[in-house]
Design a protein that fits this description.
This protein is mainly beta. Helices cover 12% and strands 35% of the residues.
């Protein structure tokens, strides 16, 4: 369980203004809703999920934008040492957000609550559970699953599951 009185979320790295929020501050940010499918690398999908949270574009705007050399994102989870990588373009897609709710209910701990990254166009492991920070990078850096054999990109329509 993540103690919400201690919860912090930060945007750092190659942004113009690194920023950090506590739980109350994050809840006060403008919300977005996204209806999207969710694809797991183990070959199951859940269709028509309604996610609600803060859009990734809103987060970047609050951080004063990304610096020109930023090309990748590394998402950091609250579980020590857990990260996942993704290209900046996927992170900034119209339907990407830090979700706080799923199908009208707050996210449970089992499903990544209190907040998780949602990037619907990529496999679910790229939608980091228990999100703690987003770091903008000039070069791609493999995250936990990528260092352990998963694909560096993870496009479900290209079957980018392992290797690569």
């Amino acid at each position: 369980m993540i103690d919400l009185t201690q919860w912090k979320f930060e945007v750092r790295g190659l942004v113009n203004r690194p920023i950090r929020w506590n739980w109350e501050e994050f809840l006060a940010l403008p919300r977005a809703k996204v209806l999207a499918d969710f694809h797991c690398v183990t070959r199951w999908s859940r269709l028509d999920n309604l996610w609600e949270g803060v859009s990734t574009r809103e987060l970047v705007e609050r951080a004063g934008g990304v610096r020109p050399e930023a090309s990748y994102v590394l998402a950091h989870g609250y579980d020590q040492g857990w990260t996942t990588n993704l290209p900046l373009g996927d992170f900034l897609s119209d339907d990407a957000l830090v979700a706080l709710a799923h199908d009208g209910q707050p996210l449970t701990l089992e499903h990544g609550g209190p907040a998780r990254l949602i990037v619907p166009q990529l496999y679910a492991w790229k939608s980091a559970k228990w999100i703690a920070a987003i770091e903008f990078l000039a070069q791609d850096r493999a995250g936990f699953w990528e260092r352990n054999g998963y694909h560096m990109h993870g496009d479900p329509w290209k079957e980018e599951r392992f290797g690569g």
